[in-house]
Design goal:
Layout (H helix, E strand, L loop, with lengths): L3 E3 L1 H12 L2 H5 L6 E5 L2 E4 L13 H27 L7 H25 L6 H11 L9 E10 L5 H9 L4 H14 E5 L6 E2 H6 L16 E6 L2 E11 L7 H34 L8
Antiparallel strand pairs: 1-2, 2-3, 4-5, 4-6, 4-8, 7-8
Helix pairs in contact: 1-3, 5-9
Length: 286
């Protein structure tokens, strides 16, 4: 392997450049060599803008040495790759294909940003859900519930217990919400949201709840390690059941937008192809 050379004077010069004013920087020779691996060279100009302007001399030295060493490792790997290029590998073709892909993807992104209808209405969601309902199956139970965690030393904790045991009384729920705003460290009090049981179990100490017994935990208040946990089950759907639209809404929206994007791009491609055909700009040769 060819020897790697790192020029210490080049690094010192770059450190000086970091601390110089703009006029002094203009006098620095950006062509100065910092490192060389085989026929590959790293010069000061390649590291422009990579050092924080307020870095100390010591920090600048560490950063520069790390950048130079990283460049050298990459250069060594590139040299090895160049020496082991398969005879049937057409680099120019790969580069051209990659360039074409970048250009096409960039233009597609522009078209999508400017022209694609990204609004998904409630009616869109409902139609998709009804048409594909059989495809959606739960991997685990999901629940609607109230969940609150607070410090066991919180004031009015006994009042909160009383309010909690009277759920789903809405007046008591309002009291609980005020209590949660003041003392809650974890609060899930929106009855319209569905949660995976695994996510809820992770929020609680071991043994408070399991996937097999969650359906029996209608309402409980338990304390452990300085925290008190309040739980009230509203509704549960078991594994393999069909989840409700509310649970699937964000996923369905992503699918709708993806399908809409794919159709939009195909239509645009067909439209441009037809246009260029009319202009006689497409030729086929046999």
């Amino acid at each position: 392997m060819k020897k790697t050379v790192v020029t210490n004077w080049g690094i010192l010069l770059l450190i000086i450049m970091i601390g110089c004013n703009n006029q002094s920087k203009n006098n620095i020779d950006n062509s100065k060599l910092l490192a060389k691996v085989g026929d590959k060279e790293l010069r000061i100009s390649a590291l422009e803008g990579m050092i924080p302007y307020n870095a100390t001399t010591e920090d600048s030295s560490l950063i520069i040495n790390a950048l130079v060493e990283r460049w050298a490792k990459e250069a060594v790997m590139l040299n090895e790759a160049e020496r082991n290029v398969p005879e049937d590998l057409n680099i120019d073709r790969l580069v051209e294909d990659y360039r074409a892909s970048l250009l096409k993807n960039n233009y597609e992104s522009i078209l999508i940003e400017q022209l694609l209808d990204s609004v998904v209405t409630q009616n869109d969601l409902e139609q998709f859900y009804e048409s594909h309902k059989a495809q959606f199956v739960l991997d685990e139970p999901i629940v609607r519930c109230y969940l609150l965690k607070t410090a066991s030393s919180a004031t009015d904790l006994n009042k909160a217990r009383t309010w909690w045991n009277k759920l789903p009384n809405q007046e008591n729920l309002q009291d609980i919400q005020r209590f949660a705003n003041e003392h809650g460290t974890l609060s899930k009090l929106d009855e319209s949201i569905w949660y995976e049981t695994s996510a809820l179990i992770e929020e609680m100490p071991a043994g408070f709840m399991t996937a097999s017994n969650i359906h029996t935990k209608k309402t409980f208040v338990q304390s452990k390690e300085g925290s008190t946990y309040f739980f009230h089950l509203i509704q549960i759907l078991k594994k393999d059941a069909t989840p409700p639209l509310e649970y699937l809404a964000s996923e369905i929206k992503r699918v709708i937008l993806h399908q809409r994007k794919q159709k939009f791009l195909e239509d645009k491609k067909a439209e441009m192809y037809a246009r260029e055909t009319r202009r006689n700009n497409i030729k086929f040769y046999k």
